[in-house]
């Protein structure tokens, strides 16, 4: 992909996690956080008139577009004192979130494998990528796409494969994924998303800093592709790529990997407990024997 | 007199050498002799170069010591090139003798030991001396024997018990002379006594094996076309140079010339004359210029010309019975008849008579090259029709056109998919609220959607800003291109740090290699020795830090910088030791 130039516009898709269960655990109240996110959106739109925006909200059972309106049936009453586009975005995002929470509390049909504190991030990301694909194709001028995930929920293991696929698709499309994790432990999946696509992963410590979400967003995620090439972005130095073993969920430095299903174990076992493959140990040299032969000198073949 | 790093003075005596008065010094590395009034030593003998000492008899008039030394660039096996004779000036002969004996004893320690067989394994020497004979890659291997006597810890660290064989030592020397980085590491670790020779190589067996295989490979003949190009001299004359090597290749390319050479040289004409006539002959010049038949008629080489033409032009040279059918061009004629294609007219032999001989020679050359490559491995062509048909069938079968055979597949049968995926999530998975809690939360979860009021509280902005800028500064520092240079570390210090890392890594490599395997008393002993040797590394690190603190540099806090730099080694060493001790105690407790 070519280098970004200054006058070119951006297309930002914000994936907003509205999982109420997760927000409950957040020291920063949801409405306050929402207010800050909306301010960020306005700032983004104010940065360049050509900038395009889409907002997708997700929770444990569904994900839907909040903005732009073509996907919703919302209409806004114009107000004289506020810039039209700001008002449009603000209202739609807020009413959309409200509706989503209301409907979420009514329905209790959660897809299998997704627990209360988890959200369907991969679905939202796929939607975002579709939107981006269409947006970049439809746009006459060059437009630089990126995604911002405001995440609160835990990683849903069920989603792993889907999420990884969307991440690689984003990488292919040249879409940056910025991740802002507001609550809970670090998301391993989203960390990888940011790492692979070249975006920033940001963990906002809402407990310590009493909700300076807006500041972090402005600092890290507002800059477009062109500006980013000149900036050092706050970087997570230590991304833990170590694996956890399947049997005890311990982080291991040295593990045993099943050659068939790639399950990781902290101890050697004759049968893989994941795929029931029986290992043939005849091929493996006993450690003592291996040591014995290596200690002996190997004579080069004499012709 | 200037002593080198780590050099200490052992003995000094006033002596004379080649009728000049001066002082003889013996240090732990060199033997020096300085003329009176001179600043620099006029004789410097490295211990590695020392070969032999001779002394005058006790009843001789003068007390003398003669030292034989290897000359520069000399192989250790050659006879010593230089000798120096020092005469003691002490008038008291008893004292002078006693003084000389001190030198004799020291020199005896560093005398290179020769074994009786000469090429057999040096079993006569002490256990440490033999494997360390490869210590110095520049060929003066014997010097390492000195190192072992100078570094008691070297002998202590030593783990391997088998003395290396002469071949092994030669291999190691070869490897070190080829690989400068490895030689550097070897010097830093083995010669300085941090790691024993055996240990050093035990983790690098593959390098030695590769070297062993490579040294066995024989180089084949050159397959290039022999092209004798003349060099132009003043006055437009040409000069050809024929070395024995080129002559050999000429003989190989033109067997007739060889025959002519055997017939004529030296009894009929001289060798020089022979080559002169060869170069002037029609035989040599016939394909070299466009004007054919240039060159003088020559009784010897015209015969060659005829011979060659008849040999290469002989159609019966190949028995057509044994030509592989796949290579037989005349067989393609059948294709054109049956399919209606035009017969191939491009491949008619002998169409261009002027280039015929050149083409023949090219073909002959290719034949020679192929023969030298295939050598004796050439397969005998089978004559039985069944095998010929089978060979032909195999050669003409196209695998791409065959029906793909279904592969035998085993279904990946993952029993519990959720477990498979859950393992990818780190952290506390149990921190999930139950459904009842959720219902309760929903009732209390209320959101104020009125955003008309201004944002009242942005949180602790100072702290957020500090965290963000701190993170950015770390990234910026890391990506600065010459950040190492900015630290202003003197080269000697950076070398010392490198050594710390090299030694630490080497030790840990051995320790972890042992620990991965089940513990036996033997291995435990070995591991104990390694962990004991950690102290040497720690000592080295400490001395490096002291050196950093005393060193002068533009960097004011060089000491702490270096300390930070070597901290990872210290940490890893401690971690390794701790883990080892934990395991040993664990074994003890269980047994």
Automatic annotation (TrEMBL), chain A:
Chief site of localization: nucleus
Assembly with partners or alone: Component of the 7-subunit TFIIH core complex composed of XPB/SSL2, XPD/RAD3, SSL1, TFB1, TFB2, TFB4 and TFB5, which is active in NER. The core complex associates with the 3-subunit CTD-kinase module TFIIK composed of CCL1, KIN28 and TFB3 to form the 10-subunit holoenzyme (holo-TFIIH) active in transcription.
Signal peptide (UniProt feature, chain positions): none
GO cellular component: transcription factor TFIIH core complex; transcription factor TFIIH holo complex
InterPro entries: TFIIH_Tfb4/GTF2H3, vWFA_dom_sf
Swiss-Prot/TrEMBL GO biological process terms: nucleotide-excision repair; regulation of DNA-templated transcription
Domain of life: Eukaryota
Gene Ontology molecular function: any one: zinc ion binding
Keywords for the protein's UniProt record, in alphabetical order: DNA damage, DNA repair, Metal-binding, Nucleus, Transcription, Transcription regulation, Zinc, Zinc-finger
Family: Belongs to the TFB4 family.
Compartments reported by the entry: Nucleus
Protein name: General transcription and DNA repair factor IIH subunit TFB4
UniProtKB/TrEMBL annotation, chain B:
Ranges where the record places region Disordered: 114-146
UniProt subcellular location: Nucleus
GO cellular component, one term: transcription factor TFIIH core complex
BP GO annotations: DNA-templated transcription; nucleotide-excision repair
Domain BSD: 167-212, 246-286
Key words of the record: Nucleus, Repeat, Transcription, Transcription regulation
Compositionally biased intervals (Low complexity): 117-139
Protein name: BSD domain-containing protein
Originating species: Linderina pennispora
